[in-house]
Amino acid sequence: YVKVVGTSYYADPIPDNYRYEQTLAAVLLQESSLCRHKRGLDRTGYGCGQLHQRAAHVANGKPVSVHKLRHDDALNIRLAARYLAFCMTHTNSWERGVVCYNKGPSRARSMSDQQIAADGYLTSIRHRMRTARNLLADLD
């Protein structure tokens, strides 16, 4: 399902070198182990993409209930994909787009280049990109 969403959702032009499909898979792998763990440690992120209600609202254009975020995996993945695309098109680099998904657009824009480079979430996503590449290749 992640592969289908990753290849079909391009509402905004995302540069090819951003590897959107692999990045989406890596984010979902990082956030929930591909939907195996849908309860966030911070208790404010929900479902496969560990979306906060604010992010879901941005991605959906209207509020989304916590119940829907927790129990509708397809909706949660689509909203995570839209939010990731939003982040990637509203920041000036792939790295800031990934950090935006985790910390929000304001924080991602305000961080220095050194802070972005040292960000633990970004490091983890880079590591998971290798795993995501293998997962997506296996599905072809």
Can you offer a commentary on this structure?
With about 140 residues, the protein is mainly α. It is built from nine helices and no strands. The longest helix has 20 residues, at about 120-140. The model has no long low-confidence stretch (mean pLDDT about 85).
Outline of the structure:
Helix content is 66%, strand content 0%.
Features:
140 residues, mainly alpha, 0% strand
How many H/I helices? Answer: 9
Report, as a whole number of angstroms, the end-to-end distance: 13 Å
- Biggest sheet descriptor: none
Overall pLDDT score? 86
Strand content bin: under 5%
Shape: globular
Helix % is 55-70%
The run of helices and strands is HHHHHHHHH
Total count of strands: 0
Radius of gyration: 14 Å
Tell me the structural class. mainly alpha
The parts where pLDDT drops under 50 for at least 5 residues are: none
